[in-house]
């Protein structure tokens, strides 16, 4: 999947120890170390195995519905009066988001490794649903750890997971959000090392997860690059995606990293504002630290204790970010900006009314950045945005904020 | 200092019994009470003290130690204050080795160089950092060894013979054998399996091998101690602290004595361990 590394390439990481510059690595308990090395071994064999790649491609086409369309948002473009806006329609995938791309890849690896049980963590529930889906498809029992707060605010996805046969375990530790769910999944894994595969949903965690998840998600950018060349005969000027852990973003960014004319913009959850505590802008307002197996930008206090994030979007509610994003930020190859809850909510409504697409609250953050940028750009310029998930899961949250009855 | 640790294990070897290694959480339920607990430990029979550094996200710990860390953080504990605990303890005890145990991020944020200098100045003898496996030795292990602080490594049932040499390579002080896969506070493993595992590790190293995870009573301590150079007890001690607190998590007059009485019981078990082994 990776193209050959060229000198000074932004696409050649991580190194053999899983590092992107100072970020990444393998900060895990000894109990997990042999498992992570096994996984790395199997992954390095699988990625060059034509049979594995063929099965992945076939499931991508017939089960997920790939390639996802590239869509020119004509009315939004007209309304904003600037750059042409294209969406990569990952929300049309089976299960409604980009998360399935990674889950299909990892379940094939779990099968190869002879594992018999799947565990996963989830925030918004999109990764939980995608994990439960592939577990059902391949006949694995599946346990999904989900913060108790998220279980409450993402009830439809909890029901979906249970329908699919997964056991959803609400986690009450901490604030009961994604970070706490990830701690609990790691505790399960450390206890059930022999039979269990930990299906991490974002491009973070110990090596090889950040690389592996990125490679499974890079299909988004690879397709989009080809599609925009077909549609416009050239590459976009800007690529924009929302970043929580950062898997949809790295998926669309990665194939464009060595195109110097393409500006890369990641959008973090600014929550209620960066001055206070209630946001999830790890890069914009955090600092480098070590959590969940990797070194990366984190929200933390002066004693190295991890803070709880806040975002209207459960999927962005994580106090860290994938290590490759931290490296891209430090090198200046990508820019990371915050979008506040209220801006994302406005964008959510704008897209719904102008294009007849209900986006998830996560890509609504990316959309709010598009809405800010497009009017300042020329009509001959192009923005490509990853529309990473659909908003059906969020209608209750949005209704509550807007004071509407569902 | 590596000397204090080596001297303690040499003395215990001469005495013919395993070490009792007691873990408690620094700052739980508050700074002063945890200092009183620490000072009471050697008199109750602790040979080595593991001083827990609280962390917001203790991924390898069970609920008891996780809650202890939350109580400590709520009471305002920081890494600097945990070092201060050791410093105050050292004013009255020059001989009991202290091992700091916790996770890497607070140390990384404190600054590795400054942390090691301050730890040495406070009389720290060793470090156990759960999320720094051998692959990450450059981060803290090598700098610690260069300064003369032991880096104590965890070996687990998943650490096979192929991997053991890598794990043991930069280990010093003692080897902490985690007797089962899982989080702290899990059930006690079969002592006969533990004995086999200890012998397996001993075939690779001359370091003392101490065993932990799941030891809750004097009988457990006796059974595990028969097969190992030391017995580590953590969760059960932290549970004694928790059980003595008010509903709001404040210390009571019983907190320190509950821990001391419990540790005295464990010490009886450990002291009887080699009698079992000799039978």
Rg of chain B is 17 Å
Query: What is the domain tally of chain A?
Result: 2
Percent helix range of chain A: 40-55%
> How much helicity do the residues of chain B have?
40-55%
What is the overall number of helices of chain B? Answer: 13
Element pattern of chain B in H and E: HEHEHHEHHEHEEHEHEHEHHH
Integer average pLDDT of chain B = 93
* CATH C-level category of the largest domain in chain A: Alpha Beta
Class derived from helix and strand content of chain A: alpha/beta
List low-pLDDT spans of chain A.
Answer: 1-7
Total number of strands of chain A: 14
- Span from first to last CA of chain A? 44 Å
Give the tally of β-strands of chain B: 9
How would you name the oligomeric state of the polypeptide chains in this document? heterodimer
What distance separates the N and C termini of chain B?
36 Å
Poorly predicted sequence stretches spanning 5 or more consecutive residues of chain B: none
CATH topology name of chain B, in short, is TIM Barrel
Write up this protein:
The complex is a heterodimer of chains A (406) and B (279). Chain A is an alpha/beta fold. Chain A folds into two domains: 20-26 and 33-61 and 99-213, Rossmann fold (3-Layer(aba) Sandwich), CATH 3.40.50; 65-96 and 218-402, Rossmann fold, CATH 3.40.50.1100. Helix content of chain A is 42%, strand content 18%. Chain A has helices spanning 33-46, 50-64, 74-80, 99-112, 126-138, 148-153, 155-163, 178-191, 209-217, 219-232, 247-253, 282-285, 323-331, 341-355, 361-373, 395-402; strands at residues 19-20, 23-27, 70-72, 84-89, 117-122, 142-147, 167-171, 196-198, 238-242, 263-271, 287-291, 293-298, 334-340, 382-387. A six-stranded mixed beta sheet of chain A has the order 3-4-14-9-10-13, with helices on both faces. In chain A, strands 1-2-12-11 form a four-stranded antiparallel beta sheet. A four-stranded parallel beta sheet of chain A has the order 7-6-5-8, sandwiched between helices. In chain A, helix 2 (50-64) crosses helix 4 (99-112). The longest helix of chain A has 15 residues, at 50-64. Chain A is globular, with a radius of gyration of 19 Å. The termini of chain A are far apart. Chain B is α/β, with parallel strands linked by helices and 279 residues long. Chain B has a single domain (2-278), classed as Aldolase class I (TIM Barrel). Chain B has a nine-stranded parallel beta sheet. The radius of gyration of chain B is 17 Å and the shape is globular. The interface between A and B is large, with 35 and 43 residues.
